Amino acid sequence: MIDFHDNMPIAYTCATRPAALLTNTMLEAGLEQIQPGQRPELHTDRGWHYRHIDWVDRLTDISHDRQQCTHCTEENPCDNACLMVPSLSRLGNSGDNARVEGFFGTIKRELHASGIRPEKHTTEEFMKYLDDYLDWFVFDRLTTGPDGQYTTLAKQRNIAKTT
Does the model's pTM come out above 0.85? Predict the structure, then answer.
């Protein structure tokens, strides 16, 4: 899960196959990052795990009274019924998810440039490398800040590194 504003990785999980637990764990970690009053939009592809009942339940704001809400209907709750506004791309239109796909492209390009070949590592070694890479991406990789100066994502957001 990344923030479209600056490509900051908000939450991630890694597994050897797609499963509801994988996406649900990532969603819960992402929900922990939301500040009171925020209701970010969440773009996903049309994967089954993003439509799974557990995913929908985790996105549902239990404090929202759908019975009293003038915008909710029986079939379609309003955006306020969710902690994040879900956005599933229409079939054949992956534009909503293009930023995430671009982020994956950056990871792949930088892995290749650094000589890392996933097929030459065990799953555990590669997952550890990915964890280290994302840590580097946030705290050490230079990017252009809003003022046009080179900085890191951590400095832009004033985030301290924890061990």
Answer: no
Structure tokens at 122: 């065990």
The more confidently predicted of residues 10 and 78 is: 10
Q: How many domains does the chain have?
A: 1
The distance in angstroms from the start CA to the end CA of the chain is 21
Evaluate whether 69 touches 37 at the Cβ level (below 8 Å). Answer: no
Cα-to-chain-centroid distance, residue 135:
15
- Beta-carbon contacts of residue 35 (< 8 Å; ≥ 6 apart): none
In one-letter notation, the amino acid at residue 125 is: E
Q: Is residue 5 assigned to a domain?
A: no
Q: Is residue 142 part of a domain?
A: yes
- Three-state SS at 82: strand
Give the confidence band of 37 by pLDDT, cuts at 50, 70, 90.
Answer: confident
- Confirm whether 7 is domain-assigned: no
| Domain that residue 91 falls in | 20-157
